[in-house]
Write the structure tokens for this entry.
Amino acid sequence: MEHTVFSWGIITFLLGTLGVGVWASQQIKGDSVNFLVAGRGLTLPLAAATLMAQSVDSNATLGNTDLSAEFGFWAGAALPIGLSLCLFLTGTFLAKPMNRMGLITIPDFYRVKYGRLVELIAACIMSVSFSFLLAGNLVAGGFMFQTFLGTSYIGGITLLAALVFAYTVAGGLFAVAYTDAIQILIALVGTGWLLVYLLANFGLNIVPGTGPLALEQLTSVGAGAAINWASLLALGFGNMVAIDFMARIFAAESPETAQKACYVASAVTLIVGIPFSIIALSANSILEQAGVVADGPILFALLQNVVPPVLGLLVLAAILSASLSTADGAILGTSSVLAHNVFGIRHGAAAHGGGGDRLLLVTRVLSIVITLLGVFLGLRVPQTGVLLLLGFDLGFAGLVVPLLGGLFWAKSTRQGALACIVAGSITRLVLFALMPTMFGIDNTLLYIPNGLFTLDFDGFPTLISPIVGLIAFVVVSKMTYKPIDAQQQRAKLEEKLHAL
């Protein structure tokens, strides 16, 4: 009976989401600006909802729970806290100036400030990192469908990818925004109800050294401090250059709306994310009382065997919502960056034969490629939280410093940006290949056996790489900076923005 409730409930939710997404396609009207940034007209409720959904993904819920249950509160809570921190910092420093620039994608900023070569390199790095982000969310859906719909893991990932692709390619950011608004509401209700139910029926049974007050998790390397800080900072800063994140900033109707939306989303990200970390601390004890052995994600074991079917279905819908809300943004954002910034197709360019919007057409075609790549990575690395962190790690290593420097340091130069991106990114990739683990999980993607780096060094590559990039940025920028007249600089910037 319970299995039937789960199955039909999930199917109904998926069909409803698809319907909303297809309905939103009516607002595209053949214009790539409508497709990519929702016509730059998202009001505060929609802008805030879609920013919340970008942060509250399956990695920050399902991955958060698994990490907290295995390694302690701060290992999992670092995900929602880091994402919340990013939203707060972005609202304070970036939202207004970035919204005013009228950009279509985040790599546009690198072209305006540093030129075409920097734009191209940044776009390629972002595309790779967001393929990992997409994969992480498909992994969560794959496990869910395998557990509750009876599909295989491969079939689950494929089904979820096909669904997200269908409504995203139809409705673009309009579809993303409208479905996100529904999904974040489900996540709020489901999370709150689950926390209250488990506390009321089982209480908290926290193993000493694993709870929120076990601050050695933030101060002792042996207790995972380096990994936890790496998670916090990678998300807190790396998400600033997230493709889908900045697309939502650009889509807000005004700079003030963009800023307020960031603050609202920052608070809600904590409200939704932290309860999953708290639930995880008692999860093993609860399952033991119920005589259940977890086979797969620990949260799924709770939902399937401990809580009432209706509550379980609601929380499943919340997790699935989180997966969909970030997967759709990843597909849309990555394909638009490839079309607009890698292949150089600008808004208004006519499609072959002189009709239609070529940027819109190519973005939709590339969405197929990105979806297939996400499926491949999800099958290759069946992890959730780790894929999220790895994706943002790449941006943190080489792209954040040129973004902040370009906005707030007058002496930043193209050469400095290139030096930062190359030094930071190469350092991160080399250290990644030499580390046997990444954020506590075995490195099954690319590991070169060596005796130089051990498990104790895990987390430090995330902290070292952006520092290397920062040093390269400052040194090279100072060496290559040439003062120019303020009026010339303003005219040059206006010319670049007009070209977008």
In short: The domain at 2-384 is CATH 1.20.1730.10 (Sodium/glucose cotransporter). Strands lie at 437-438, 441-442. The longest strand covers residues 437-438. The chain has one domain: 2-384.
